[in-house]
Specification:
homodimer, alpha/beta, Quinone Oxidoreductase, Chain A, domain 1, Rossmann fold, 2 domains, seven-stranded mixed beta sheet, six-stranded parallel beta sheet
Chain lengths: ~350, ~350
């Protein structure tokens, strides 16, 4: 006996931008669940910028994905068969096996979650999941935000950035500035998310655009983009400014080393701190994060937008589109509707 | 009545490397001390890399020096006339008015110091002064050194760097690596200061030299140099590495922005922290610093070397030589012998 599944594999390491031929869809036969295992049907799976790094052979903070193996990632699904007393059939769960329509795995590797009345379960992949905790940990712990700070976030219309800006606003930032890559995103930041100012980084030198958007300077920078954005933030920092360096999507597809910030000497006189982080080091913040953010979702003070691609067949295109900035808010791939 | 003094003034803002004509010696008449004032004869004055920044018109952490004014800096001297009960004639004092043979100033602007039996008073400008506290604060607070860390210091033969390396050794570093600019300095670091390894940064790419000198990587980087050294340290960092960014002497004479580190993306995966600092923010560490370092000086566990230039006439040349790396240990200008 076995279970027929559909999965995506990495078959070639991308050089620069990933192309369709770097991936292949396969039909696989997975064994029936053994004792303690569950079978989970994917409701929605996540595509995230960090996945680009896993596709390289070079050493990173996490192992490279192997060629010819099914790719991994955050997934929310429903248990359709169970040989575990702890996780019964019908349970809603999170797991990390992504990129497939059905997963067979140890019940100890899933987390049971509650339904979200009136809200899609895919929020567990975004605002209530890894991107949300990333925004929370980076802003409040790594960058040590405090009320009254002026905050700049790059990639502000993305899954993480859109939350950083809103968290800062809700916690009393004096000013929240974001950069994004299209006029529509810039309008969304101002009109829907309550950013104080936003700009399209294609419209000029980032340093000039930032200086205009934050004429009093910035105290906190949350960086998802790297490169020119980081140099501009260093220039705009007030004394004791802090950067939480979360990502550098501008360089993920780069095939040679990008130029670095030319103004690092400003770290001394302005006593700046630049600190990189990974969300996995901050799991202890999960309870306060979930409690506060759930409340903000319930009372409507937080906007959690998704860009949804329908169907597993679209997963690779969704990922490639993500790296081009095709998403507003969290990019998710939905395979099946939420259960009633 | 008045007091004849000899002083050095800045008369032109240097473009790139300072040249002799940027400065002029003057003979001045300073008024006799008023109530609460003291007259201090300079024993030794300091020249320091930070002074190069004060010579620029551009905004920095401290005001630019005015053209046609006498330059300032750390000085140790003896009170030769006093109208203050708190600071009597004969007292040994520190003040910040430098670059002159005699200073007239408010007694509240001097700090009385004790003689150093068997040691020169000029140590108050180095190991027991601002450079010493800089090394202390940068290593122990800003970079959060802990025993067992592998430490890399750039400009390791300078006033600050030579102390950073020794402090790290004395507090249990697993490895202390330094870079310097001449073979003699490199030998001195290994033979006299007890560095585990040292290299001349002219001998190749800093990244390669550092990888060879610290094959297990580094946990702490104390940067006095900037530029290529910072990039190399980022590459060599172990997880959770911390840089205390103290200075960037490689760029102080630069007339255009130097290239920045091209590997800033490593901050994320390695969770690195780069933090700039100024010693003035860390004055609260002064008591523990003085107590510990005085003990190390007394018991001979710390080497405090000076490069001494004799006479006020040599002060500008001493400063220019400092920026070329002509010093080993602290560069001081001695005007008069220590009192008996």
């Amino acid at each position: 006996m076995s279970i027929a599944t559909r999965e995506w594999q990495l078959v070639r390491r991308p050089h620069g931008k990933p192309v369709a031929d770097d991936f292949r869809p396969v039909e696989a036969e997975r064994p029936d669940p053994g004792p303690g295992e569950v079978v989970v049907r994917t409701i929605a799976m996540s595509v995230d910028p960090y996945m680009r790094g896993r596709m390289n052979a070079t050493k990173s903070y996490a192992p490279s994905w192997e060629l010819g193996e099914t790719m991994q990632g955050g997934t929310v699904g429903q248990v359709i068969a169970s040989r575990s007393d702890a996780v019964p059939e019908g349970a809603l769960v999170l797991h990390g096996m992504g990129w497939r329509d059905v997963a067979v795995l140890d019940a100890g590797h899933v987390s049971v979650v509650e339904p979200l009345p009136g809200l899609p379960l895919s929020l567990y992949l975004g605002v209530l999941g890894m991107p949300g905790l990333t925004a929370w940990a980076g802003l409040f712990r790594v960058a040590a935000f405090s009320p009254g700070d002026a905050v700049f976030v790059s990639g502000a219309a993305g899954a993480v950035g859109s939350l950083v800006g809103q968290f800062a606003r809700l916690r009393g930032a004096s000013r929240v500035v974001g950069s994004a890559g299209t006029p529509e995103k810039v309008r969304w930041l101002g009109d829907e998310l309550g950013f104080s100012a936003a700009f399209d980084y294609h419209d000029g030198a980032v340093a000039d655009l930032l200086a205009a958007a934050a004429p009093e300077g910035i105290d906190v920078f949350f960086d998802n983009v790297g490169g020119e954005h980081l140099e501009a933030a260093i220039a705009a920092f007030n004394l004791h400014g802090r950067a939480a360096v979360c990502g550098a999507i501008s360089s993920y597809n780069a095939v040679s080393a990008p130029p670095g910030p030319r103004n690092m000497f400003l770290l001394v006189g302005k006593r700046l701190t630049l600190r990189g982080f990974l969300v996995g080091d901050h799991a202890d913040l999960q309870p306060e994060f979930v409690e506060t953010v759930s409340g903000w979702l319930r009372d409507g003070s937080l906007v959690a937008r998704e860009t949804v691609v329908e169907g597993l067949d679209g997963a690779v295109d969704a990922f490639r589109d993500l790296l081009r900035g095709g998403n507003t808010g969290k990019m998710v791939v939905r395979l099946t509707p939420d259960p009633e």
